[in-house]
Design a protein that fits this description.
mainly alpha; 107 residues; 71% helix
Length: 107
């Protein structure tokens, strides 16, 4: 026997080693996806509640502000404020209903 020739082929050329590396890579990817933090749970509920509160306050305050501005320039006190406050409430509730009808995985 000659000392120049190796007894076995290098590890990279063995088909069994290549298949094992592919299986290990697939297992790592599955484990990474499984252990990735999920959006569901308390964090998602907290964000949804914050969004509902923001929609409600935004509708009320936005409608009140626009109505007050209309009343100041048109001199229609208090009808502009009341009308726009009503529209603000309607828009806020419409947005809250849209949020509540969304599936949990949608943003």
């Amino acid at each position: 026997m000659s000392d120049d020739a190796p007894e076995r082929d290098p590890l990279g050329e063995d088909a069994r080693i290549d298949a094992l590396e592919r299986r290990l890579q697939a297992a790592r990817e599955r484990e990474e996806q499984r252990s990735r933090p999920q959006v569901q749970g308390a964090d998602a509920s907290y964000r949804a509640g914050s969004r509902v509160l923001a929609e409600l306050l935004g509708g009320l305050l936005g409608g009140a502000l626009i109505g007050w501005v209309i009343d100041r320039f048109a001199g229609t006190t208090p009808w502009g404020l009341l009308t726009m406050l009503f529209f603000g409430i309607v828009v806020a509730f419409r947005n809250i209903i849209r949020i509540s009808n969304r599936r949990p995985d949608e943003p």
